[in-house]
Specification:
It comes from Paenirhodobacter populi. InterPro entries: FAD/NAD-bd_sf, MQO. There is one protein chain. With 571 residues, this protein is of the alpha+beta class. It has a domain at 317-457. It is 32% helix and 22% strand. It is built from 17 helices and 19 strands. The strands form three sheets. It has a nine-stranded mixed β-sheet with strand order 5-6-4-13-14-15-12-16-17, sandwiched between helices. Strands 1, 2, 8, 9, 10, 11, 18 and 19 form an eight-stranded mixed β-sheet that branches. A hairpin with a 3-residue loop joins strand 16 (438-452) and strand 17 (456-460).
Length: 571
């Protein structure tokens, strides 16, 4: 039996033999490639070293999801004459994590997510992160509104819908926490319109299913905000790419998998990719963005930039219970988030979500953590072992040793039965019937691990932009809050890789047209916040009344205590 060597081995051997990079890099690539123990033969056709073979494109986007498409649209706004190409390994865009069925679809604005407002050792609630998350989502709303005005996006209900956001908790301690959180948040203009109640009848008005069959002896509390949204990021991605594909400066390559990324002598990058079963194709680019979700880390490692050496990744998947029964979906019109159980990661918080997917109302409950060595839902089981290097192995082991509670949590999640998942659902929906629900495997999330001089390695929550020193290549690593803040993340990327251009009058003027609040914190400008909430609500057809948009804020006493480090992951 003969087998062809994986392309990564071929590229590494070529590099070592031909001297295209340091032997250390080639050995790393060979070490990272898992090859079954069998006889192997291969015929290598060595591509010529890139010198000045062709005119490079201005921008190459690797990955056809919400991040790459957002950056493509933004750069086209700023530089309409730039040439842009996109490479996507699957046969359509938005088929991985951006797909509506592979994520919760929450417009993350910290209205219901309790992990963004932790309580310190003095019992005070800290809302700094909640404020930041909300401000960044407002940037996304403004960005989408601008794209609607240009015809890039259309039919707002196809991708965003008003969906009240709720937090729901039980027990004395949790009720006390939620009351404190509400008092802290209402001092900030961003959370105007939020209500708090401990009355089961009032909570039943907001989310009927949660109170039907509720044990009256069980103390309960909830907050409700009218400003919440359900967002189909896959639909936004498809509309972005449809617009870009109609531009003469844009080319889309589907069913095309990147095999190598090498720097050219002139400072540009040569990316080799294979389209289906055809031969290798190449494209040179002045700037490369790797927005490939879980696949970003291996591709960043492939580029060989020093900045990537300290990073590792650990994949965690998620599954949801789904009900498409109209009697269930038709009576639940909110996103209801709880508080993570003691010992569980704060971001693992369960939630009962009203969703609009493919024009249909459904309800999702979860997530339940799953595990696979794949970095992508449609990826390879070799992706985790292939990402391990001599430099990032110790950070990975250190994170495992210092976060053993996470390992225990994941092990417990993997042992859940259908009965266990139904029991978890019944905490939120006491009368739930098993026959109304089925299990759906959602997408993969790769948790970022970074070398730390003191701890060996640390888990990095949120998203992280990693770029070469000269800004010629960048990748987005991480998971949450992810898609809901794609626009502000891409603004951050521009500041990092185009620091001179972003200061030019032309770019500044355009950026302020796209996002009127650009450069200003909405939490510090209530009048601007109110006007932008009204403008975006009207453009996006969000059903929020003028009274609910009236901004009222007050002074808040600063928290007294300090926050402890808590192990966490995004599912």
């Amino acid at each position: 039996m003969t087998r062809k060597l994986p392309r990564k081995v071929v590229d590494a051997a070529s590099t070592l033999i031909r001297g295209r990079s340091k032997p250390e890099t080639a050995r790393r690539d060979l070490l990272n490639t898992a090859v079954p123990p069998t006889t192997v033969t291969t015929q290598v056709s060595w591509p010529a070293r890139a010198g000045a073979a062709r005119k490079p494109v201005d921008v190459l986007l690797i990955g056809g999801g919400i991040m790459s498409s957002t950056l493509g649209v933004l750069l086209h706004d700023l530089e309409p004459d730039w040439s842009i190409e996109m490479i996507e390994r699957l046969d359509d865009v938005a088929a991985e994590s951006s797909n509506g069925w592979n994520n919760a679809g929450t417009g993350h604005s910290a209205l219901c997510e309790l992990n963004y407002a932790p309580m310190d050792d003095h019992g005070d609630v800290h809302i700094e992160k909640a404020v930041m998350i909300n401000e960044r989502f407002q940037v996304s709303r403004q960005f989408w509104t601008y794209q609607l005005s240009r015809g890039v996006l259309n039919d707002p209900p196809s991708f965003i819908n008003s969906t009240p956001h709720m937090s729901l908790v039980w027990g004395d301690d949790n009720v006390d926490y939620l009351r404190k959180r509400f008092e802290a948040l209402k001092s900030c203009a961003l959370f105007a319109g939020m209500e708090f109640s401990t009355d089961p009848e009032k909570i039943a008005e907001w989310a009927p299913l949660t109170m039907e069959g509720h044990d009256p002896s069980r103390k309960v509390a909830a907050t409700w905000s009218p400003h919440g949204t359900d967002v189909n990021y896959g639909e936004i991605t498809r509309q972005y790419v449809t617009y870009l594909a109609a531009q003469p400066q844009f080319r889309l390559h589907l069913s095309s998998e990147v095999r190598s990324i090498r720097r050219n002598d002139d400072g540009t990058w040569r990316v080799s990719y294979q389209k289906g079963g055809a031969g290798m194709q190449e494209v040179d680019a002045r700037f490369v963005f790797i927005g490939a979700g879980g696949g970003a880390l291996p591709l960043l490692q492939e580029a060989g930039i020093p900045e990537a050496r300290d990073y590792a990744g650990f994949p965690v998947g998620g599954s949801f219970l789904v009900s498409e029964n109209p009697d269930v979906a038709g009576r639940h019109k909110a996103k209801v988030y709880g508080r993570a159980d003691v010992g569980a990661p704060p971001m693992s918080v369960p939630h009962l979500d009203s969703r609009v997917l493919d024009g249909k109302h459904v309800v999702l409950f979860g997530p339940f953590a799953t595990f696979s060595t794949k970095f992508l839902k449609n990826g390879s089981y070799f992706e985790l072992p292939a990402s391990v290097t001599r430099r990032n192995l110790w950070p990975m082991l250190s994170v495992g040793m210092h976060n053993f509670d996470l390992i225990t949590y994941l092990a417990g999640q993997l042992m859940l039965t259908d009965k266990d998942r139904l029991a978890a659902l019944r905490k939120f929906y006491p009368n739930a019937r098993a026959e109304d629900w089925h299990l759906w495997q959602a997408g993969q999330r790769v948790q970022v691990i970074k070398r730390d001089p003191e701890k060996g390695g640390v888990l990095k929550l949120g998203t992280e932009i990693v770029s070469a020193q000269d800004g010629s290549i960048a990748a987005l690593l991480g998971a949450s809050p992810g898609a809901s803040t794609a626009a502000p993340i891409m603004f951050d990327l521009l500041e990092k890789v185009f620091p001179e251009r972003i200061q030019t009058p032309e770019w500044q003027e355009k950026l302020h047209q796209i996002v009127p609040s650009y450069g200003r914190r909405l939490s510090e400008h209530p009048d601007l916040l109110e006007s932008e909430l009204r403008a975006t609500a009207k453009a996006l057809q969000l059903s929020v009344s003028p009274a609910q948009l009236k901004i009222v804020s007050s002074e808040r006493i600063a928290p007294r205590g300090s926050l402890s480090d808590i192990s966490d992951i995004a599912i």
